Amino acid sequence: MSKLEQQLTATVAGPGRRRFLQTLSAAGVTGAFGPAAMAAARADDPWKAADAIVKRVRNAVKFRNEDFVVTAFGAAPCEVRAVTAWTSFTESDTLQTPVAGSHDCYPAISAAIAACHKAGGGRVVIPAGNWYCAGPIVLLSNVHVHLKAGAHIYFSNNPLDYARYGAYDCGKNGKLSITRWEGNDLLNYSSMVYAHGQNNIALTGEDWTSILDGQAGVTFDGDVDCWWSWKGREKPNWAGDIAAGTGNYVKHTKGKTEVHINPVNPVSLREVAPHLSEQEALFIQGPNDKWRTDSYYLRSLAEARVPVEKRIFGIGHYLRPHMVQFISCTNVLFEGYQTTNTPFWQHNPVNCHNMHVKKIYANSMGPNSDGFDPESCTNVLIEDCHFNTGDDCIAIDSGKGPDIQFGPAKDIVIQNCRMQSGHGALTLGSIMSGGIENIYAQDLLFENAHWQTDPLNIAIRLKTNMSRGGYLRNMHVRNVHIPNGIRTTPAFYSTLPGSLIPTKTVATSAGGIITIDCGYDPVSDNVRIRPPSVSHVRISNVTCANAPTKAGNYSCYQAVVVLGPVASDYNGPGKPSILPVSDIEISDCDLGTPVNADKPLYLYNVKGLKLKNVKIAGKVVNQTLSA
């Protein structure tokens, strides 16, 4: 066994899970807010279970009263200059960036965190000013990293800076970190703020002038590309999932993206997965070379159950790092700062437990700039946050394909949050192979203030398919106000040849206020062997106003879209049970006036969708529907 394999054997199986179980044992979770009490609360009143989660999570972190100011360890502020940079996939503007040769604060911040941790904990303070950091901020147990008001951290936009300091020496690919990318484990560039297997940690700011800036739209030195170029997205149009904007868009170099074939990836999956038969390898690879693009190559490695120590990416690959990714951590606080211009997802805690998210502003409009994606996390409270994103505002995940060792995402409360632009305001999936359960969302404002130029696509959204699979059960949503409607033009996914659903006929990508999509983008997955299950969803008191569009006053394209599992998408052995979406109740809602007035509802493979006192286009519906 190599040194790298020995390291990973000790860590990738999840020390955080063991630490979490030990923490729970020490805390006596069979008490007032333990699993037994919460289960009883759910049976009686689901919102009592939500209250129990809130009480458990608030004030979970505690720190020694000692400050470690980064300037005492050699940090110095930097000068900035104006530069034209991308602010979204379709818009550019004048931004500030550190001048060439700026002092690198990475060593000082790392030294302050190490000293704080060694002393038994405390607060690492980053004062007001502009700070340049050419490497990741890596938190350790009992460390609270705090940005004062006016503290603006500009993270280097040189990819090499996130392949210098990782724990795993992968040779020419760099020194990499254990990360997770769209639900699959790998060794890759570190996120810009990172933690693995730590306990009692916090990342906070004094207010939204405390900024973590990924500089994702600033071109690399001597290059025409930026972090967002690696997406490889082609020129948009209004029929797709984003607005065309001015007609300008982030350019990319062909061959240097996640969606172009990467010649360093093998020509046969059996080169890295010799345990597969030729037939198995061809099934995972699919009918063409698309699997050799980095994003699909990682999926293929996971489907082939290639061990993580052989899923080496980093230098020479194009999977963008997250802004903040904590893995297998317990007792976590995120509070009071702004993230912006992030290369990929803004926050992705994985297998984290007892986590409080409060008053953050997730403000990045680039491709895949999800605001907050808790993945296989338990006991989570997200409250008083503001989201303005280039993808989903909140997306709850639980791993993709075989990578479900951390279990489901469950016991999550979301309340008093405000959402602006994004693909989905409140989203579950699509990365949900491990399951999602016990979700409570209440008192939300989907403001959609940019409805004229970059509208919110969907308000409440579930997405999965025969590849992602998983389950959703016991989801409760109440008191959602949508004052400016959502996107009123539909957007569609292509379906597979021979599908029971004609291609581009169901508006599951944009246009539905409430959308349950169990046939999500099936052409993107070669392996489709995991039928999903969706049951016991309760949504009440959603009010969606009409907006004065050019075509008239409308709230959406369709009010409710439910596409249950599509049996023809399955390509595995045998004939599995394909369950309809069931036990869904929508009550006491006013969903405004849909553009598609003739068909305000779309239903397929649904059993017992109950509408109680639901107003659509001024008419009240009380009906139980199946299709």
From TrEMBL:
Pfam families for this protein: Glyco_hydro_28
Keyword set includes Hydrolase: yes
Keywords per UniProt: Glycosidase, Hydrolase
Transmembrane portions of the chain: none
InterPro entries associated with the record: GH28_Enzymes, Glyco_hydro_28, PbH1, Pectin_lyas_fold, Pectin_lyase_fold/virulence, TAT_signal
Annotated Gene3D superfamilies: Single-stranded right-handed beta-helix, Pectin lyase-like
Family under the similarity heading: Belongs to the glycosyl hydrolase 28 family.
Protein name: Endopolygalacturonase
